[in-house]
Amino acid sequence: MSLIADEIISFSSVLRIAYNLLTGRNYLKRKKFREKEKLVAVTLPFSDLAFAAGTVPVFPIRMHKFEISQYLTYLGSASSIFGWNAVSNFLSFVKNLGIEEVSKIVDDIIENVIDTINEKYNEMYDLGIENGISSDFCYGLKSLVGSHVSKGRNVDACLNVTIRCSAYNKYLESLKSINEGPRQIWIDIPPRNLGNSLELLTDNISNALNEFEKLTGNNVKDNDLRDHFKIGNQVKRSYKNIIYDISASDFYPCNPATFSEIMALLSITFQDYNSNAVRYRDNIVSLEKEMRERIRNGIGMDVSKMPRIFVTPMFGGWEPKSHEIIYELGGRALYADWELLKLLEEIPNGPHTDPSEEYARFLMRATETGIGCDNDKLTDSYLRMASDLNADGIVFFQLFGCHSISNCYAMLREKVRRELEIPITAITFNRIGENVEQVKTRLGAFMEMFK
Amino acid sequence: MDDSSLLSEFTLFLKEKKQEGIKVIAYLAHDNIPEELIDAAGFFPLRLIFGGNDELMDASHDFLPPSTCAFAQSCIGLFSVKPNDYKFLEMVDYIIVSNHCVSDICVSEIISKYFNIPRLNFYVSYTINENSLKYFKLELQDFRNQLEVIIDRKISDDDIHNSILKFNNFKKKLLEINELEMLGSEKLKLIHKSMLFGPDFLHDLENLIQKFKHTPQSVSNTSKDVFLTGCSIFINDNFIDLIEEGGGNIVFFDTWIGNHYYSQIIESNLIDIETDPLDVLVLKFKNNIYGDHSVPNFLEQKVSFIQKYSENYTKNKGRKLGVINHIIKFCDHISLMSSFLKDTLQEKGIQVLNLERDYSRANRGQLSTRIEAYLEMMK
């Protein structure tokens, strides 16, 4: 893990994002009890309406208390006095002095962040099964059920957006059985863009906004939506820049394993912006700047000889050791799930736009051309993404129990071989850490193809 | 008649249809597919309501991982292996890709793509509300257009009305099966045949129902009455034998192959020639509140229905009713809600057996044991 830690401290924004992810519980408690704000559970990157309505969206696992290293706690406290940049610079300075003990401490911090998140995911997975969800469902759903069982009663509402995955939609229905208290706010996305279905979706969004108004007692104005879309667009712009301008380039601001680690962190946190859109926007914008700054100064690593391995899907659960393994085998792992699913598209927010309609258009586009209403469309998305990233190979995580995305592998493999002519392999995944040796073997064989 | 004879008879029936120039549109068992439109356009709607076995499931693994719904796996297996009894599948002209569940999409798409059967699309919203009803109508219009392109003529409203009436009358007759005093397996055979042949079977169905009404079959006094919910028992599946061998008798099929299908009846006064026939089909979708596809009230509706049925049954028959929730392994809809269904019903004093299975022979013994233990407990 030291190779990751050695690099990551140079990005104070990453520390901030990680810190905000892990300390979510205190932040959320303050919001709920002191500031009397409403917490709304969200999954997948559908937090926009919750933000615009003045509520606090939360990806449920973040309501948990995480075991955070004393050092990160210290860093958090120090940052509130000196600012994050000062803390980060100090760490870099100390590490550059070559003081071994301090380097170890830094290693511990980062290791803690990554391991803590994964441990919690696994804990939620077990809890989900203990509480009735069949072990036959995918890692993501089991973890989500576990999160709701343990902490779902703390939220005031759940924002439920239907997608093509029937298990996911049924999981959404089950939320009111897990916890009776929270209001269930639904947005049903029509499966296809037929006739006036955009108008129907716009109306569904308006109805959801009415539910938010009932929840908060406040009106949600068009400008509230536009203001949030503006922030969201800035987030998406930076995220996309990091994906296309940096992850697909030949010079990285850090080593590729660190880079993948950062991308994984972004993938998790993008779902609820760590419950604070402005703060998240500032962090991701500064992350992009920090990366560019390092590249400009020639700090980082020439990765031109390292094959680009597009690793996907990872949002529903994947083996986090894979990028490190790929790096050790001479490659670099690229993560870009949200872009693949068209969830990083910007939403027009001009003064004359109808924001509900624009949001409907955004959701419809993601449904039509991102996740797709069938596997033909979905596999096209994978092809597009692999092509846009100029990927040299694809590692496809086939989640045990995933009937929506994993089922497209046979079709994807055929299309990739025919149209992209690059190698592709599937790795089965059930639980984090369960099959690391097998993952190593599979990736070892796969990476041989690039030698 | 065993399932092999049924399939053999059906093969002949379908051959005749084809000789008459009628094309066949197949689809996975699905409660929202507008079979009336298919019929009105002059096609034969073929419900893929066939169970599986190890061989069929294995054959699907070139296309799908084994952690896919066993029914879905078997559907692919049928097209891949084409067992002798199922040669009629070669007569399928089109397949509908629909989203009853995501496996429905994947499987229909695979059948279309890899077995060269042109696809038709018909998707359904997950919620049932004002907007999803409007969306349903859009899908109906689109589906009608797809059919019209194939037949190269308009489907008249009159034809759709007639088909709606035809299926409506057929379902009304089928509904009478619920009240027949007979062994569950015999009842299921009747349902299977009816749903496979469709309204063409109406005349025979009327006679058979009449016959069973006049000469009720004896059911063992010691057998336990069972309400079957969850996944359907498909043709060529011996699951019902396991229940009967264990001492149970299914008295009500609360599944798509059963009440769920034939209870979707439109009140005759609503099938008005002046009404847009697509609106009648929208109404049918609106009334389909027990369908497992829908969210967010499926569980509540299902619990309420089972509770009411169970109470009435005990009141009228003076016998206790067991509930078996049949879960085909990896079925998204039924599996995910199963623990909630069981907990909620048991809180109301209704004992439920959640029975999860696939089509492999290996688990037969274990299933029998569980069924027997459950029925024993009902004493």
Task: State the share of residues found in helices of chain A, binned by percent.
Answer: 55-70%
Main sheet: strands, sense, barrel of chain A? 4 strands, parallel
Rg over CA atoms of chain B: 20 Å
Oligomer: heterodimer
Query: Which ranges of chain A are low-confidence, i.e. pLDDT below 50, for 5 or more consecutive residues?
Result: 1-5
Helical segment count of chain A: 19
Strand order of the largest sheet of chain B: 2-1-3-4
The proportion of residues forming helix of chain B, as a percent range, comes to: 40-55%
Query: How many helix segments of chain B?
Result: 15
The outline of chain A comes out as globular
Whole-number tally of structural domains of chain B: 2
| Secondary structure category of chain B | alpha/beta
How far the N terminus sits from the C terminus of chain A, by CA atoms, comes to: 25 Å
> What about the largest sheet of chain B?
4 strands, parallel
Notes on the structure:
The complex is a heterodimer of chains A (451) and B (379). Chain A is α/β, with parallel strands linked by helices and 451 residues long. Chain A folds into two domains: 2-291, no CATH class; 305-340 and 374-451, Rossmann fold (3-Layer(aba) Sandwich), CATH 3.40.50.11900. Chain A contains 19 helices and ten strands. In chain A, α8 (139-151) runs parallel beside α9 (166-178), α11 (222-247) runs parallel beside α13 (277-296) and α17 packs across α18 (409-420). With 379 residues, chain B is of the alpha/beta class. Chain B folds into two domains: 3-156, Rossmann fold (3-Layer(aba) Sandwich), CATH 3.40.50; 168-377, Rossmann fold, CATH 3.40.50. Chain B has helices spanning 3-19, 35-40, 54-59, 70-81, 102-114, 130-151, 157-175, 184-197, 202-214, 239-245, 259-262, 277-287, 298-317, 332-347, 364-377; strands at residues 24-28, 44-48, 92-98, 119-122, 224-230, 248-254, 321-328, 352-357. In chain B, the strands form two sheets. Chain B has a four-stranded parallel sheet with strand order 2-1-3-4, sandwiched between helices. In chain B, strands 6-5-7-8 form a four-stranded parallel sheet, sandwiched between helices. Chain B starts with a helix and ends with a helix. Classes of the chains: A alpha/beta (451), B alpha/beta (379). Chains A and B meet through α9, α10 and α18 of A and α5, α6 and α14 of B.
